[in-house]
Amino acid sequence: MKEITQEVYLKWYEDMLFWRKFEDKLAAVYIQQKVRGFLHLYNGQEAVLAGSLHAMELGKDRMITAYRNHVQPIGMGVDPRKVMAELYGKVTGTSKGMGGSMHIFSKEHGFFGGHGIVGGQIPLGAGMAFADKYFKRDAVTLCYMGDGAVRQGSLHETFNLAMLWQLPVVFICENNGYAMGTSVERTAHTTDIYKLGLGYEMPCGAVDGMDPAVVAQEVYTAVERARSGGGPTFLEMKTYRYRGHSMSDAQHYRTKEEVEEYKKIDPITQVKEHLLENGFATKDEIKEIDRRVKSFVSECEKFAEESDYPPVEQLYNTVYEQQDYPFLPHKL
Ligand SMILES: Cc1ncc(C[n+]2csc(CCOP(=O)(O)OP(=O)(O)O)c2C)c(N)n1
Ligand SMILES: [Mg+2]
């Protein structure tokens, strides 16, 4: 694996802080009703993404995830201003404002969404890996899912075929403890989620998902296994989300104390402490990064605010239409 140097830690700090503040801004503008529909935030889970990105080959490998999907495309190189504009429903967004929060997508950057059907991306991720193997492309797919999604039957169909065909895919469960308001303990006999891989003899294991260095190492091993023809891996990232499931979650299912406990192992704080303790950055240098992050988030907000809504003619551009069917409303 590429060495985890001072530069990597500095990048992790700046990236993770940017993702956190970007989403804090989204929460603020959501309350002002500038962003509408559902909004699921990733706050707390950032180390899973930061570590994974270090283990991947950007420009070649692919990523697919569920609806908690605003910062992953940014990590893969999509312009954050376009992501913010998409959330605002503006024409300058990644899908011309027609996708919104749950459907960020950029084929160019290898980011394949953005899926609102729980577990829907699991077979799709395997399908992407199948295509890469079939066309002999040297790419690996990282397919993310929640602890709730692993209870979908399609996971089992996918795991079976992924092993049978030795597909170049890494399945990553982000176990944040809850599926909406329901804890893993309330719904599952096997609470060690990684063990679901055992039934298929898929290499699997649990990982500290709050430390990007640990994530990077484990994901790298899995990615290299996939790339060298060794087939899939299933990793369970032990992580936590600080905010509710979505913006409309009153969070009656957990205590404030529980959330505070997890904040003690916050990935951004951990990386900041690593930077300071190892003399990789001074307090002033950290302040400078914080300032840069804040200003870039404001720039994204301004870009989204000042962009136009899509023209009304765009409404039907992405809708399937049978040419000889006369009863579409815009044709009446
Ligand atoms: C097939 C399907 N069933 C139910 C829902 C409603 N739903 C949306 S998110 C969610 C919980 C998923 O939890 P998890 O997989 O742990 O992901 P997290 O939100 O924690 O990231 C449910 C049940 C849905 N979107 N799709
Ligand atoms: Mg969950």
Features:
pyruvate dehydrogenase (acetyl-transferring) activity, Pyruvate dehydrogenase E1 component subunit alpha, Rossmann fold, 11 helices, binds magnesium ion, 5-stranded parallel beta sheet, globular, single chain, binds thiamine diphosphate
Q: Mind explaining what this structure looks like?
A:
The termini are far apart. The protein has a single domain (6-331), classed as 3-Layer(aba) Sandwich (Rossmann fold). It has helices at 6-31, 46-55, 71-75, 80-88, 121-134, 153-164, 184-187, 212-227, 256-263, 267-277, 283-306; strands spanning 62-64, 141-146, 169-175, 178-179, 182-183, 204-208, 233-238. The radius of gyration is 20 Å and the shape is globular. With 332 residues, it is α/β, with parallel strands linked by helices. Helix 1 packs across helix 11 (283-306), helix 2 packs across helix 8 (212-227) and helix 5 (121-134) packs parallel to helix 6 (153-164). The model has no long low-confidence stretch (mean pLDDT 96). 42% of the residues lie in helices and 9% in strands. The protein has 11 helices and 7 strands. Strand 6, helix 8 (212-227) and strand 7 form a beta-alpha-beta unit. The structure holds thiamine diphosphate and magnesium ion.
